[in-house]
Amino acid sequence: MRVLLIGPPGAGKGTQAVRLAAHLSIQHISTGDLFREHIDQGTELGQNAHTHIRAGLLAPDEVTIGVIKERLARPDTECGFLLDGFPRNLAQAQALDGILADSKSRLDAVLDLEIPEAQVVRRIAGRRLCRQDREHIFHVDYSPAEVAGACDVCGGELYQRDDDRETTVRKRLEVIAARRRRSSTTTKLRAW
Ligand code: AMP
Fold it and tell me: Ligand 1: distance of its center to the CA of 32 in Å?
């Protein structure tokens, strides 16, 4: 099964993606996680992406599309995948169309998560991730760890993503709002 999960930051894509991918026994592919892996490994691509991510901006399309093409070419996606955070604009959606056409496959479902904008900042700014496994996600108010600062699952250190800080979250929301205003249609995909 091939599934897309779209929605604004803070809507819960990461949390739902982990559950859904496990339920469907398919690969969870998050462009944000792929970038963070590159950043941790100190690759050139990671350094380029980090400049944009830290500033609350989208990474350049050609970089993002390259990363996703490479990931979808790996054999573990043959039985299906759940894309989380890609595509985020029309150019990326068109690139995905091309990738699917080349592999003679198609999407089975697109899920669009919605969240009132007023809740976004609080949800993202309170998010904490485990350094050992970023799929272990906590929230200081809504889903706190039993021992502050330590992952309930594996004991790993919990940290806040650079781009989850309140000022960066507000910048990310501004970027989305600006894209929406610029968009000539009301297609939601153009805004995420
Ligand atoms: P996420 O983990 O999905 O919130 O993504 C974290 C950051 O990675 C985003 O704020 C963007 O800077 C970058 N990013 C993730 N996915 C994309 C994408 N499809 N296009 C461009 N930048 C992306």
Answer: 5
Q: Return the number of other C-beta atoms located less than 10 Å from residue 129's C-beta.
A: 22
- If the chain, 192 residues long, is cut into consecutive pieces of 10 residues, what is the mean pLDDT of each piece? 91 91 96 94 93 91 95 94 94 96 94 87 93 92 95 96 89 81 56 48
Stretch (H or E) spanning 71: helix 61-72
Please indicate, yes or no, whether the overall pTM of this predicted structure exceeds 0.70: yes
Distance in angstroms (rounded) separating the CA atoms of residues 158 and 132: 9
Give the pLDDT score at 56.
86
Domains of the chain listed by start with CATH number = 2-114 (3.40.50.300)
CA 137 to ligand 1 center in whole angstroms: 17
Residues in the ligand 1 pocket, defined by CB under 6 Å: 9, 30-32, 35, 52-53, 57-59, 64, 85-86, 88, 92, 163, 172
